[in-house]
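Hi! If you just cloned this repository, the fastest way to understand the data is to look at a raw example. We've pasted two of them here, unedited. The first protein comes first, obviously.
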Amino acid sequence: MKKKESKAIRRKKPWPTKDAMEQVYEMKLWGSNSSGFYSGTGSHQSEIVQPYLDVIRSFLTTFEEPLVVCDLGCGDFNVGKELVKYTKSYVAVDIVENLIERNKKEFKEENLEFYCMDIAVDDLPLGDCALIRQVLQHLSNAEVHRILTKVSDYKYVIITEHIPKGDFIPNKEIISGQGTRIKKQSGIDVLASPFDFVIKEKKELLSVVLNDGKGIIKTTLYKVF
């Protein structure tokens, strides 16, 4: 039997983001449900999820030939499961291995695949459109920059982020996995420094004002080429 690793050993591993995300699920820091894996209210609260599904479904169904969609940070797949039917193929990835193994058992479609990967480090799957829903907000600027460099290979990138209401200074630095920039009255803006994401077109698809007064969840479509 494999011995349980001590916290000291875990701290020496070069995967701080992976460890942090695993801890989120192990300690149920985003809440819990009967499945054992819960990706938080952003993936389950109907006032947030349903408008998102509506705009993404509307976008995906505008194409005569369905797109290959890559869900980069799929979480417990409560959201993604509703979009698979509108795609040619749907590739869902997350950094937490146990979560991906659970998803493989729970969700089965002919055009659906799951992979465990660190999207800041690993080569991303090929596709037409990347969905990045409330992922970048948890990552350091260095990791966000690496991800944005790689997603420029997708024609369409749809990014959803929790940002403050009103004016704010974007892209303040955080430690990956240690909360979000909301604590610093900041949020991700991929077009601003230090990212300067290069695109052809930008379209805001959705803006949901949270009832708790803690900001807005904004979904933006970027056409890269």
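Ok, and the second one:
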Amino acid sequence: MMIDLAQHYNEGFIALKDISARQNISKKYLEQIIPFLNRGNLLHANKGHMGGYQLAKAPSEITVREILESAEGSLTPVSCMDNTPNLCENCENCLTLPVYEGLYHIILDYLDNITLQDVINKQPDSCEYYI
């Protein structure tokens, strides 16, 4: 949905039925993911005859990290890292925590450096996307 909105960014508000048809994703499913994307302030909505959705920012300003965190919540590899400070009673002596912390930083760095614009610039127009 987000890639489709990025591909049609300059066309104003896009109806869910159009995204559904182009991406072969059910309209009902799209309706279910909108609240998650709204949680991240990634979309603007317009109701009525010319209603639909559009990106809240330019595709070059929305990172893959923002989308995934809106849809999935935390991207931490282990749940004990969801709290700051870490509330796990074993975190002081945990031998694997530094491994997961390193992985988490690599994941965030990677996803922070990919925007929706990057994704659409690197893919042929004929591909279908599901984010």
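That's it. A detail worth noticing about the second one: Residues 126-131 have pLDDT under 50 and may be disordered.
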